[in-house]
């Protein structure tokens, strides 16, 4: 083990102790680990030197980087100079590392300070409720990282039943190579989770990523030509195609994708990312007659529907992962936010390193329309704008710090009463006009509108279905003349 000349004698004394001891320099890097630390961790600690011991900051998926991050001090050390934490190092399946209580002591000034960590039993902790809360959340995060290191993207953290079910499905998905469907709202990090699952279930297997809404059969072939060439050149090769917005992919492109998968005997795997509004029992629209009329409905037009071809649904039915909206995972918000603060603080985005109780209260009541991605952006903003270690509500973006319960309800009311109805009415008029100009030719009408024919058919079907389900209006009088007009 190496150490600077000035502290070499002190390090010899630490090596003689049976208590694990390590030292962290001002940059957050491990500069010394004692012999007892080597015995506790069960490895040659020379491998950990100069790795960052900062919570949430592993620079790679290297297990040693992950291990070094778990040796970092808890929040509050900079201001208090001392802090305690139950350290839970991330081991592997063959070697379980026992957690121990550790006292961290910060010695020296800011630019030349050294943090010494000493394992043992300490019962003289200074009571501070907010720091205790932060340390408790940190321990939850360390336990989550330790148990779920392979899939430890921030979106999977949490203690709610929803988070537990999601992690259980992801663990299964990461252990077997099969077609996968991910269903979640916008901003729920479906793609990052899917990529991690792909890395675990099919390491070194090439992957092609395509945007479903933009595809047609010819463009799909061009987008995945590299992986298809590998499959064609070797009977042993395997590949994966990840489709963003699979439920918005035109049906002809979906069916072509099914043909490609079938032609390679499932050597081509599908990972589909879909909206949480899509279900696997959705079926494809039937081709409507070219001269069908478009009936005008003033209100009640349904939004564009998302569809998955029945053959695609059969492929994905074997294993799906559902990611619930963040607003329904209120229990998880403090843990998710703390993990993101750790990450941005470790990236040196700012001085903020923990959330105050008032800040957590503000996060819990906010509805998070853009889910984890919005939470990530908010925590980056908060870490950058905080002027001290504790992040307060005023450090959040305006939308969050000014939010009051009931705001979202009033916004939804405005949208549903005015904007949505106006847009839907305008859309209906455009469709009707295009069909009339094209003399009933649906393909020509779709070209005029700049959309696919299948999308036009879905909109026409939605209008007709809405009109069929609308209750008939009661006539104002029962005179024969009224009956003649019906």
UniProtKB/TrEMBL annotation:
Keywords: ATP-binding, Nucleotide-binding, Transcription, Transcription regulation
Region of interest called Disordered, as start-end residue ranges on this chain: 463-486
Lineage: Bacteria, Pseudomonadati, Planctomycetota, Planctomycetia, Pirellulales
Residues annotated as domain PAS: 6-54
SUPFAM superfamilies: Homeodomain-like, P-loop containing nucleoside triphosphate hydrolases, PYP-like sensor domain (PAS domain)
Biased composition (Low complexity): 469-486
Gene3D superfamilies per record: 1.10.8.60, Homeodomain-like, P-loop containing nucleotide triphosphate hydrolases
Domain Sigma-54 factor interaction, first and last residues per copy: 156-384
Signal peptide: none
Protein name: Anaerobic nitric oxide reductase transcription regulator NorR
């Amino acid at each position: 083990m190496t150490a600077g000349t000035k502290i070499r004698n002190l390090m010899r004394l630490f090596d003689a102790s049976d208590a694990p001891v390590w030292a962290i320099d001002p940059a957050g890097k491990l500069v010394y680990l004692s012999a007892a630390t080597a015995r506790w961790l069960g490895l040659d600690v020379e491998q950990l030197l100069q790795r960052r011991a900062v919570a949430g900051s592993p620079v790679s998926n290297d297990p040693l980087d992950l291990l070094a991050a778990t040796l970092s001090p808890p929040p509050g050390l900079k201001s208090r100079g001392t802090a305690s934490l139950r350290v839970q190092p991330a081991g592997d399946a063959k070697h379980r590392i026992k957690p121990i209580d550790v006292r961290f002591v910060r010695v020296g000034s800011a630019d030349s300070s050294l943090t010494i960590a000493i394992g043992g039993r300490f019962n003289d902790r200074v009571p501070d409720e907010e720091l205790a809360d932060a340390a408790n959340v940190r321990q939850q995060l360390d336990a989550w990282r330790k148990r779920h290191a392979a899939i430890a993207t921030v979106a999977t953290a949490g203690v709610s039943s929803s988070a537990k079910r999601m992690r259980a499905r992801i663990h299964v998905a990461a252990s077997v190579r099969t077609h996968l469907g991910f269903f979640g709202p916008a901003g729920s990090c479906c793609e990052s989770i899917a990529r991690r699952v792909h890395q675990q279930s099919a390491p070194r297997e090439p992957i092609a990523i395509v945007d479903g809404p933009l595809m047609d059969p010819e463009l799909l072939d061009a987008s995945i030509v590299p992986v298809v060439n590998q499959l064609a050149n070797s009977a042993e090769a395997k590949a994966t195609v990840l489709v963003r917005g699979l439920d918005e992919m035109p049906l002809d492109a979906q069916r072509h994708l099914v043909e490609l998968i079938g032609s390679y005997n499932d050597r081509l795997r599908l990972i589909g990312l879909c909206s949480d509004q899509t279900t696997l029992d959705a079926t494809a629209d039937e081709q409507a007659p070219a001269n069908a009329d478009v009936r005008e409905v003033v209100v009640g037009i349904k939004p564009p529907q998302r569809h998955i071809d029945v053959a695609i649904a059969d492929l994905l039915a074997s294993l799906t992962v559902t990611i619930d909206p963040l607003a329904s995972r209120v229990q998880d918000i403090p843990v998710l936010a703390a993990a993101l603060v750790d990450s941005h603080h470790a990236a040196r985005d700012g001085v903020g390193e923990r959330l105050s109780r008032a800040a957590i209260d503000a996060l819990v009541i906010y509805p998070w329309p853009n889910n984890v991605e919005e939470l990530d952006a908010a925590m980056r903003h908060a870490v950058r704008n905080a002027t001290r270690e504790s992040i307060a509500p005023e450090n959040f973006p305006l939308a969050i710090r000014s939010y009051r319960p009931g705001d979202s309800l009033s916004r939804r009311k405005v949208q549903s009463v005015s904007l949505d109805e106006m847009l839907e009415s305008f859309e209906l008029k455009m469709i009707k006009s295009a069909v009339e100009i094209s003399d009933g030719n649906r393909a020509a009408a779709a070209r005029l509108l700049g959309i696919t024919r299948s999308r036009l058919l879905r909109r026409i079907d939605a209008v007709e279905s809405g009109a069929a389900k609308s209750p008939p209006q009661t006539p104002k009088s029962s005179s024969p003349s009224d009956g003649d007009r019906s």
